[in-house]
Amino acid sequence: MIKTDILIIGAGPTGLFTVFEAGLLKLKCHLIDALPQAGGQCSEIYPKKPIYDIPGFPEILAGDLTTNLLEQCKQFQPGFTLGERAETIEKQDDGSFIVTTNKGTKHNAPIVAIAGGLGSFEPRKPLIENIVSFEDKGVEYFIKDPEVYRNKRVVIAGGGDSALDWSIFLADIASEVNLVHRRNEFRGALDSVEKVQDLKNKGKINLITPAEVINIVGHTKVKGVVIKESDNVHIDKEYVLETDHFIPLFGLSPKLGPIANWGLDIEKNAIKVNNALDYQTNIPGIFAIGDVNTYPGKLKLILCGFHEATLMCQAAYQIINPGKKYVLKYTTVSGINGFDGSRKEAPKAIVKKIE
Amino acid sequence: MEQDVTIKITDRDGKTHEVLAPTDMAMNLMEVVRSYELAPEGTIGVCGGMAMCASCQCYVKSDVELPEMQDDEEAMLSEAFYVKDNSRLGCQIQITQEMEGLEVELAPES
Fold first, then answer.
1. Are residues A240 and A269 in the same domain?
2. pLDDT tens per residue across span A237-283
3. What mean pLDDT comes out for the span B2-10?
4. Is residue A116 domain-shared with residue A17, that is, in the same domain?
5. Are residues A13 and A106 in the same domain?
6. How far apart are CA B83 and CA B93, in angstroms?
7. Measured between CB atoms, which of B52, B55, B75 is closest to A159?
8. CATH number for position B39
9. Residue A349 falls within a domain, yes or no?
10. Are residues A245 and A259 in the same domain?
11. What per-residue string of b and e applies to A253-271 under the rule 16 or more CB within 10 Å gives b?
12. Is B47 within 8 Å of A268 when comparing Cβ atoms?
């Protein structure tokens, strides 16, 4: 059981900044995220895109903002459960909550802050009728352990970075790598596109374009896929390609997911909160901050998430330390005392006589 | 208002809405759909309008001239589902006065 003061669901910018604000109040945080890395949409969808409305940053890349937020909160030693989705929540007799992930990891905290953005990212599944019945029987939407593919035949479908990068990676592991895409053009880092070209020339990646996988063949596991080659010039060609694995990589789309069943007031795919006070939901002790919440006049902006996180932490302090006095301190005045023993502070003014 | 154009948008339930879209606020078609709440929040414009998610895919039903498709829109559509010959990404269509009479249908959610 992982124990913490504030359990944050979602490690995007709002969740990460919560760690900093909570740390100033000597509250410890742990974050859960379905993605394998921190940063949320900023690192998953658009790490190389600039953001222009972060106060104090005329321009910052989404990936760099994530790096900065991690650096800013690191002395408060946040814990992370990554690559797991928060599944259930149970209220305990002592008023605290136990949140369990899809992999069974349990977390216990008196405060839960949902900073889940648009929800957890789920793979976009191609429209192949029988695909669900082959999941984990040769169809995988993520590559968790590349060793699974050693000396196996693999078909990867997709035209973006992940399809390119995994084709390159598996070229040295699998016995056969087939990359299927609807067009001859790929969208990825120049470097990856050139690498795939090189591996294709060497015969290590078999490129099948423009084509689609339209069906899966097999009984208890994948034995092959049906490829349809179609270039609008020649007659379409359909054939079975024998394979052990089919890996469709068509990106991820966010779904509110299990949080929708936690008994929270939901409106327009977002969680209703009390914006006049502390961004608490209809369940005391559970807060919702950032893009995942809604209230009159709500704006889904990173900067609004930062504000909401800050106010929410003050309310969390009051719940965890009932009646305990506290006044807001300015970091410039009081510095920052990390949980790791580090201290950041403004340099002392020099007072010296001028002769 | 005189800068507004009239656009017909068929939602994912098949209902057609005739809406006024401003041409002076740098809005794109995806944002017009959101401003009239013709698709639930969170099911359209997921990436914010960077041609990176295809949640605003629509089928163009009229012959009003539209801006030419750029590389990133074409690349995204080549990875999207339910794509037809008349598919476009709403986020890549800026609303201008030339778009009076545009008719589109939202593609299914995927």
1. no
2. 999 999 999 999 998 888 888 999 999 999 988 999 999 999 999 99
3. 91
4. yes
5. yes
6. 17
7. B75
8. 3.10.20.30
9. no
10. no
11. bbbbbbbeebebebeebbb
12. no
Write out pLDDT tens, residues A199-242. Answer: 999 999 999 999 999 999 999 999 999 999 988 888 899 999 99
**β-strand pairing of A266-267 with A270-272:** antiparallel
CB contact under 8 A, A46 and B50: yes
In a domain, A126, yes or no: no
pTM for the full model? 0.83
- A187 → closest Cβ in B40, B75, B82: B75
Residues of B in contact with A183 (CB under 8 A): 74-75, 78
Q: How many CB atoms lie within 10 A of CB B17?
A: 12
pLDDT for the residue A349: 85
Tell the residue number behind the tokens 């909401």, with chain if given: A308
ipTM of the complex: 0.78
Q: Which of A182, A185, A254 sits opposite B46 (nearest CB)?
A: A254
Instruction: Give me the percent of chain A exceeding a pLDDT of 90.
Output: 80
Nearest residue on chain B to A122, judged by CA atoms? Answer: B110
Put simply, the chain B residues between 34 and 73 with a CB less than 8 A from any chain A CB are 40-43, 46-47, 50, 52-53, 55, 71-72
> Mutation test of the interface with chain B: which of A42, A52, A61, A118, choosing the one with the most B Cβ atoms within 10 A?
A118
Q: Which range marks the domain in which residue B10 is found?
A: 5-106
Nearest by Cα to B55 from A193, A319, A254: A254
At A53, list the tokens.
């409305």
